[in-house]
Amino acid sequence: MNLVRFRQTWQRLVTENRFHRGLLIALFATNLLTLSALLQAERTVVLVPPILESQVNVARASASQEVKEAWGLFVTELLGNVTPTNAPFLRQTLEPLLSPGLRRAVAGILDDQVEALQRDRVSVRFAPELVQYEAGTDRVRVSGKQVITGPGADPVTRPRTYEVQVAFRNYRPLITYLDAYQDARERKQRGADSTADVAPAASTQ
Asked: Where is region (Disordered) located (predicted)?
């Protein structure tokens, strides 16, 4: 009697052991599939920067409109407030953000602007007033006032608009287009190309 019961118990244990072993193998396989899917999936990072009022999304090669507007405003405020003192800092800050086609051109523009500021003994500042995003061109347009002041002269104020295109590579912003002009007529006269990299036409003249 005890032998029969022992055999029945042993068979149940063997059956349960086989079942648990198969279950563990299945769980291990599903974990591998989940890990593979996570490694291959494109992650979306949700951020709430202090300069924005709501959360924004940044993916590997794209970002929400609010992020592009914030970066466009950041870049234009740097470019619009160049002085001989902060020019090295601006170059160091901007160069990692610029596409290879823009780096040399922007560096040359900054050098020319600093030379003009030192020669004419004037200072330039830019006060942004309006930030717009154009979905058709994927560009941010920042409009405002450029104020030029010099010794013994009244400040000169004129309109100024910057156009910036912000792409994303591996979650990092990359400026692929950059232009600046006084008004729409000047932009049209220059024949701005909608696909080419353009350096900012910043000038103290």
From this structure: 186-205
